[in-house]
Design brief:
This protein is of the alpha/beta class. It has helices at residues 13-23, 74-77, 81-91, 103-109, 125-128, 155-168, 170-179, 198-210, 216-239, and strands spanning 2-6, 30-35, 39-42, 49-52, 54-55, 64-67, 96-100, 117-118, 134-135, 141-144, 147-150.
Length: 240
Amino acid sequence: MQIAFVTYPGMTALDAIGPYEVLRALPDAEVRFVWHEIGPITTDSGVLMLGATHSFAETPAPDIVLVPGSGAATASTARDEGLLDWLRTVHATTSWTLSVCSGAVILAAAGLLEGKSATTHWRALDLLRPFGVRPQADARIVHEGKIVTAAGVSAGIDLGLFMAGEIAGRAYAEAIQLSLEYDPQPPFDSGHISKASLKTKAQAHKIMMRHGMFRPAEITAATRLAWDTALSRLSARVRE
């Protein structure tokens, strides 16, 4: 079972590494980190690096593909036609197509989420609407056919466990969960936008701005892409 994690410059590392640690434990899992070419990939911190182990050309038919998100490079990556073409092609034959965080925006840009429900990071939820997607703000995982989307960053671990249950059964998934000792008991109850105080939300915005996550310019660029895509599809339908 070949599992391809899209690995692109500026991605958020935990979006991929969280589910990777779960999915690599599946029976017969063959994991690939894929990009246009093999080589090092600098993540959004500018310090931590991952590596693309295979190119898109070397990975024409993965069983599972996962697209991670980014607080700084979603818009530019969602305009990468080479990536979008590859996603459309492999989605035709995948068993599962997955996203974590704003990776859902990239799936949407490829036209894979139109008319479907999906979730993403709370700062990116509104970016889904112009693509014809129904954003689910309160869902940590959204399962639509063979497409499964996860909310922000840490939700990738939950996605991995959900997929382990779907593929290998609940008992095996529970064993993976125990092997990782994944037993979330956060010291604070502010992990969802609906639970956070105004002060916490304001501080979270400051933290994200300081670390280049979902800055206004990125949100504006992603919004422009979404509307450009929506208008292009509308024009195409009118011509038909």
